[in-house]
């Protein structure tokens, strides 16, 4: 009898514990909850993950490449506060902001348990679900959800890895490796390790200014967000949607910068490539970034051809040059260092250094097309470089 009472009490406590996950978004001013559910961001039920009230789904004109992972992005703010528009930098977000990015893959249709499937399918373009109302998990392997939390002391990055049952995700302070096989179609399959970054590695990309080393969002900038996207109010400009929701103030009616969609065939090749290099490389390659001393600046604001790599010899690149003389040689991708490093998977050569284990074939092809559009000729420098 006592054993039955103890068992019954345990069951009640278990149910009570499970029910404590908040049903609304909950901002934690300090501490790092072990479970993603403690933030109250999503409901996972009936084969679907859905956002809670106030979370706005957004998409970028050109997204950063992460081993062909698909991404669902949201932003949430407390009532009564808003971000302030900035024309070039990330918007100035208030304390209490939570930015989420959920990384996932499509699994084969015959996968009995998608959440434990090691086989995933290459999807190009990388987003096949708009995610506005959440994600249908019927053929989805959830990998991780990264949070950027704006606390009083600044931004904090937290990576959560989804559990095998797909019901919750667990904080991975030290990162994690997930072994996957990518089906590229045509019988070609590529085995790779998807790397969940540790908290220090998050800062490697998100600390975009060497002087402050402060973490901040990469994608939440005007030029990346200035596009139409479905959601509340229909398919409207995302900046207008954020303003209408009270999440953004100060955005001008005209003159907002806009990056190209790197896959839009109607866009100019140079604009496509510059957008691709901006989102994938400029968080380091800018005048105040970690790679500033390379002399290669790939942010959207840079217009000097030399700073963009044209006929610029490498600086301390070591074997990463592939024995090629310049970062970009107009009309000659085979003599250009940039596509060589983008295509490499050697840790000592590859660029970007973090965030990928395999090459982005389509991105490399775009950069090669871009180089073919460049005009001019490079002259080898004589004597030692200083």
The count of strands amounts to: 16
Order of helices and strands: HEEEEEEEEEEEEEHHEEHEHHH
- Widest sheet: strand order? 3-4-6-9-10-11
Total number of distinct structural domains: 2
Computed structural class: alpha+beta
What is the helix tally?
Answer: 7
Spatial shape:
globular
Helical content, roughly? 10-25%
Poorly predicted runs are 1-19
Q: What does the average pLDDT come to? A: 89
Sheet with most strands: 6 strands, antiparallel
N/C terminus separation: 86 Å
Query: Cα-atom Rg, whole angstroms?
Result: 22 Å
Report the portion of residues in β strands.
15-25%
What would you say about this model in short?
The chain is of the alpha+beta class. Helices cover 18% and strands 22% of the residues. It has 7 helices and 16 strands.
Structure write-up:
With about 375 residues, the chain is an alpha+beta fold. The chain has two domains: about 25-260, no CATH class; about 260-385, no CATH class. The protein contains seven helices and 16 strands. The protein has helices at about 1-20, 200-205, 220-225, 240-245, 270-280, 335-345, 360-375; strands at about 40-45, 50, 55-60, 70-75, 85, 100-105, 120, 135, 140-150, 155-160, 170, 175-185, 190-195, 230, 235, 250. The strands form five sheets. Strands 3-4-6-9-10-11 form a six-stranded antiparallel sheet, covered by helices on one side. It has a three-stranded antiparallel sheet with strand order 1-2-8, with no helix packed on it. A hairpin with a 6-residue loop joins strand 14 and strand 15. Helix 5 crosses helix 7 (about 360-375) and helix 6 runs antiparallel to helix 7. The chain is globular. It starts with a helix and ends in a 13-residue tail after the last helix.
